[in-house]
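Our consortium's second objective concerns turning raw sequence data into structural hypotheses that experimental partners can test. To show how far this objective has progressed, the report includes one record in full. It was chosen at random from the queue rather than selected for favorable results. The single chain below, 618 residues long, was entered without modification.
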Amino acid sequence: MCGFAGFVGVGTEDDIRSMTACLVHRGPDDEAFHVDTADRVSLGFRRLIVLDPAAGRQPMACPEHGLVVVFNGEIYNHAELRRELEGLGCRFRSSHSDTEVLLHGYATWGKDLPLHLDGMFAFAIWDKPRRRVFCARDRFGEKPFYYAATPNLFAFGSEITALHAHSGFSDSPDPAAVQKFFAYGYVPAPRTIYRLVRKLEPGTTLTYDLDTQEVRHTRYWRFAIEAEGDAPADRIPALAEELRALLTSAVSRRMEADVPLGVFLSGGIDSTVILALAARARGPAGIDSFTIGFREPSYDEAAFARAAAAAIGSRHHERIVDIGDARAELPALLSRLDEPFADPSILPTHLLARFAREHVTVALSGDGSDELFAGYDPFGALAPAALYRRFVPGPLHRLLRVVAGKLPRDNRNMSFEYRVRRALRGVSQPPSLWNPVWLGLLAPEEFEACFENPLPPEILFEEAIQAWTQSASRDPVDRTLEFYTNFYLPEMILAKADRASMRASLESRAPFLDRNLVAFCQRLPHGYKMRGGQRKFLLKEAFRGLVPDSVLARRKKGFGIPLVDWLGALEHLRAAFVPAGMRPAYADARWRGFHGKTEDERLFLWGHICLAQIASRS
């Protein structure tokens, strides 16, 4: 796990050093550069040593093929690929560096290299003989890749901050992207919050041609549900056994490291299953588990995590945080996000990562399970939403929203009042908009009041509409699985995990995103994911007996923070900031409603703070 930067075109060695210096938190252990003055190609690298300390330095060159690579991530099937490449005549210099596998793999398979990889990765390979830079990002976008192409400069890196450090590059916020942020809670790829910077989409390669200055993209993979038909009960035992074997293998692959490794533990099913499998592989006494708790009871999961750790026998570590931790940490954390995403759990996730980093360098997480196994509340709301939309007339719906808006504000985590308000704002929209509106910071009808030049809904939500209408599946559950996995997972969950962990110089790994396990989930009818009103049905069946029944029976809680209780103490972080294109009075009115306890716009206000902190660094 590391950070890299690079550019082709105008610039000096001072530029690549400045770009790379922005990434020291991603790689505190080493720094190195490759500068090709003849072709004006510069690469910089910061390393967090996890695998092959002696031979894994980057930028790594393959002189016999004229290649140089910078790579962030881990290739979990690198040992198998190494054996395959050696059988084809490749000669390796390192003993077990996954970086060197990329070089020989590219020399052998060319642009098809990503199809062979099981891992999390973002990399750039300078191919001098072909005068091109070949770049790729993993299937789910676990690792970030940003780039900007102007007439005299192609710049790229692990963070937007690195691009802005180049003396020949300047940029400004994109007003359309600001609106999309308030629509989704994140900026959907390939856009970023800036006009010129783009995200390489997950499952995509990029080739930059030095002679033509042309940028070409190829989508090599996208998550899509392949299953059709019923979910007969007699298949449950065999499928549960297959799932158990696949996740056991996935955890085992992700435990390879030359540094200490632990597990993030919430006490819910996802992290507890990962901990149980890690403990089975290494022995409970050889595994550390880590938990962050809160003093506000409805948000605190520390007792559940403590009980799960005790049942499994891990060496458990726990820390309680409060508003003082938030005040101290948030300005620096939010200002380094590069772009905003409206998930307040970035704070406890970072505090958890920093806490774990006191003991380990790598941590396994349960990320990806909710998206693959229908774990979120909206999956259970799809059928009621369809009935509601069918039988409740428009005037009555508007009345219900007014009544819900007058419910007393409840500050507890996922309170009834909060869920009712969010549900009603979604079901008033066409089904293609249910998911983004349930997650977003503003409802579609609020954009005209908020922005001076509001985008029409068909442009504002074009990514969600296109994904819904072009899905091969006609079932709303499968379409929602695809939405969460292709949008919410990379743009919110994995972006949060990467930023939160790498700010603490910690590598986070997600076994649920194993290539073979994901393929299994794509073929699995959703009747095994949601069954009899129970979400994550097959996952619970597969690990019944391995994890405590109390964990399997727990309702999903979510890793939130007491946001409503804390917002008043954090309001100064917005500093009267007005995002690009927003009407100045709109945010002030929302803050007044919050202080008057007449509104619950917690996500909008949090998004306002996030944008303000990012702008403060620009």
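The partners drew two points from this record. The chain is about 45% helix and 15% strand. The chain has a mean pLDDT of 90. Both points have been shared with the crystallography group to help prioritize constructs.
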